[in-house]
Amino acid sequence: MRKIFFTLAIALATLASSAQEKKFDNPNSDARGYLVKVGDQAPDNFELVLQNGTKTTLKELRGKIVILQFTASWCKVCREEMPYLESDIWQAYKDKGVVLIGVDRDEPIETVQKFHKDIKISYPLALDPGAAIFQKFADKKAGVTRNVVIDQEGKIRFLTRLYDKEEFSKLVQAVDGLSKELIASR
Known about the structure:
Blueprint lengths: L1 H19 L27 E3 L4 E2 L8 E7 L4 H18 L4 E8 L3 H11 L5 E4 L5 H4 L8 E5 L5 E6 L3 H21 L1
Parallel strand pairs: 3-4, 4-5
Antiparallel strand pairs: 1-2, 1-5, 3-6, 6-7
């Protein structure tokens, strides 16, 4: 009887732990939910509609370093990271060939505009209805915050997931190096 109970307990524990694992729909996603990797050409078949109504594309931004920060107003970790993106990336590099755009996951314009104002950032936020842009870079079940650094030729050079101070420091180093390369090439 003990043997049956023990076997049953192990089976239940195994089921419980596998139920807690986050599974992604797309079999091509990595452990962090990304569908892209460093070195890939960034998907660029979409338009970014900013919270102020202006529009742009990655193709139009070619020649600059572009950082797409996937975010949402309900994301606590995003809110924690955004002031650092504002100060350490946007304010430090906006005049050095770097463009930072927050891509707000599947929220209406009013929410995005309020979020932009409330969080007190000056870099733009773009709308992402249905998370269609997000799903070009990550599995639809993968979460935000994440940053995709794209070089002046459209290649992905750095990826982050969540807000980790050490990883964020490496993000700043990557942007700094790319910015120096860009300035040197002019």
